[in-house]
Amino acid sequence: MFGFSDKGNLNLITQALEAVGCKMQVIPDPTTVHFHLPSNLSVRVHRQYGEFIAELTKNFPHEKEGILKFYNECWKIFNALNSLELKSLEEPIYLFGQFFQKPLECLTLAYYLPQNAGDIARKYIKDPQLLSFIDAECFIVSTVNALQTPMINASMVLCDRHFGGINYPVGGVGGIAKSLAKGLVENGSEILYKANVTSIILAQGKAVGVKLSDGREFFAKTIVSNATRWDTFGKLLKGEELPKEEVNFQKVYVKAPSFLSIHMGVKAEVLPPDTDCHHFVLENDWSRLEEPYGSIFLSIPTMLDASLAPEGRHILHIFTTSPIEDWKGLPLKDYEAKKELVADEIISRLEKKLFPGLKSSIVFKEVGTPKTHRRYLARDNGTYGPMPRRTPKGLLGMPFNTTAIHGLYCVGDSCFPGQGVIAVAFSGVMCAHRVAADIGLEKKSPVLDAALLRLLGWLRTLA
Ligand SMILES: NC(=O)c1ccc[n+]([C@@H]2O[C@H](COP(=O)([O-])OP(=O)(O)OC[C@H]3O[C@@H](n4cnc5c(N)ncnc54)[C@H](O)[C@@H]3O)[C@@H](O)[C@H]2O)c1
Ligand SMILES: CC(C)=CCC/C(C)=C/C=C/C(C)=C/C=C/C(C)=C/C=C/C=C(C)/C=C/C=C(C)/C=C/C=C(\C)CCC=C(C)C
């Protein structure tokens, strides 16, 4: 996980836990990811920036200068981001205050807001294989290539992994939600589980409550939806005319595919002792990077935290992009058979590329499809999140938290700045600040608000 460090301003998981009086013990991951790429290109992204750059330049000595220039430009943006107090960019008193206190940093971010990582990489790098490597660097966090990945998001992940680092919460990532929930309850909040919202209640065009599938209704001054914008406006507000803002959003962004996930328990001896925790595998053909089932993600959390599995066992979480269309309309028997077949192919590829004997070492296996994602996360088509339809203008087209419906706010990965736990946590921080201003807990200027919201709405139409 990003966001777990004890320094800077981007450690949003640490900050969220602290806000409710919790802290989790973490284990630093020495390697963010080990790439296994075409032409046997193997690159380990070491926690130490210098070691990573040394490994990359060893593979591409003729591009040393380009590599340094590209990643240095990322650091410029990361340092600007990391210097700001992160609050709502839709709240003018805060936004203008930041421009006043940190003009250079804010102008840097405003300059890069409409730009994408692939264009900047091409300014410095010519080697097509190295440009494909930058595509893979972006793909693992955005599910699209570098030319479609906003430069601000790319800089955040390409640098924070060396600044705050990647850290694993002891006991597993599920502990983050559990700690947060415990902290919230201890601070007086109430959380309803198994509460399936089927619609948002409107009164005179204003959002005033929610209705659950069991018929219960809840009313509030403010409604915040963490469902995707497609679900919020397509299902929870079904029958209402789609607001112009949302039509624009859907013009610029489509739903990214979902994932096929395989969770396995294996005998420990099948993995060499120095195996890294995270791997990304694309064997032969760069053109398959973005194709369904083309590339394989693999996490082995027991490499960092042995307590997660019984002694002598490791956990493998293997996943690859997969569209829901491949899994729709199949009779149960065919669905089960297809899961086995597709999983078997993926496991065979890993056996061939990384771990000989993998198949015979399996002691437990469970396969989830896009339908599993849809069911458990209630995400339309099980989507991983928004993906630009064409080349985007960086982050310019991403909507913030306020919506065209008075009293209704959106958070999550279909809001600015997009996918990723830190991105999603930032959208939560922004939303909390905007709501606090709107209900009178923070300073607010209605005149400036109206002007800024109009300006931001207009900027989005340029994307
Ligand atoms: N670091 C990693 O390895 C990793 C792995 C996977 C995902 N992620 C990130 O996590 C992010 C997901 O964040 P998010 O918060 O936007 O999405 P989310 O899908 O995780 O959260 C939405 C929550 O809302 C609930 N929900 C949806 N509709 C509902 C309804 N009608 N009624 C009640 N509850 C409902 C869902 O059950 C879910 O718990 C993604 O962007 C992704 O990048 C990171
Ligand atoms: C408003 C206007 C107009 C202007 C102004 C200017 C300014 C001031 C601006 C500002 C801006 C800002 C602040 C921004 C921010 C941003 C952020 C925070 C971002 C973030 C991001 C993040 C991200 C993207 C992340 C991501 C991550 C991810 C997705 C991850 C994932 C992972 C996975 C999947 C795993 C892997 C594994 C393997 C490889 C195995």
UniProtKB/TrEMBL annotation:
Listed SUPFAM superfamilies: FAD/NAD(P)-binding domain
Signal sequence region: none
Catalytic reaction annotation: 7,7',9,9'-tetra-cis-lycopene = all-trans-lycopene
Amine oxidase domain boundaries: 163-435
This protein's UniProt keywords: Carotenoid biosynthesis, Chloroplast, FAD, Flavoprotein, Isomerase, Membrane, NAD, NADP, Plastid, Transit peptide
Cellular compartments per GO CC: chloroplast membrane
Bilayer topology term: Peripheral membrane protein
EC code: 5.2.1.13
Matches recorded under PANTHER family: PROLYCOPENE ISOMERASE, CHLOROPLASTIC, PTHR46313
Needed cofactors: FAD; NADP(+); NAD(+)
Subcellular location per the Swiss-Prot or TrEMBL entry: Plastid, Chloroplast membrane
A single MF term (Gene Ontology): carotenoid isomerase activity
Pfam families: Amino_oxidase (PF01593)
UniProt KW Nucleotide-binding keyword: no
Similarity section: Belongs to the carotenoid/retinoid oxidoreductase family. CrtISO subfamily.
Name used for this protein in its record: prolycopene isomerase
Pathways involved: Carotenoid biosynthesis; lycopene biosynthesis
GO BP term, example: carotenoid biosynthetic process
